[in-house]
Design goal:
mainly beta; four-stranded antiparallel beta sheet; elongated; about 150 residues
Length: about 150
Amino acid sequence: GKRTIVKQKKDLNQTFKSGPIVLTINAIQSATLKPSEDYKDMFDGKDELTVITVNMKVENTSDDTISIYPNQSVLTTDTGKQVDADLWFSDDVGGDFYGKIKKEGNVIFLLDTPAKQINKIKLIISGAHNEEYDSLSDDVQIELSF
């Protein structure tokens, strides 16, 4: 298909904590995607959709096993839309972090709202927990603007 970047912010380097997890948002991007005929089924048959990409680094600063799932986060927009991260297209930046582990990649969100209409997003990530499933922090809510 054809992807056209509409808005982006690079070099954000905004850092957030969830227990011993340090989450850094590096960049955000909104783009319009027009899937080719062969791949439209992967996008519910849509001719056009918006792709929001959040590039991040996730690091466990402790020696303990800590779990957090930013690749299963929720995104809300200033246009009143809410969508879950797309696990199929997102990189594996979540899960169990066995000690001082770092993961980096993109979390992808697919929306019907035209990209040019989206100026602000909020990323909501469930707080980190330990091996006993004890919560180590509240949910992380990250507000970002294009």
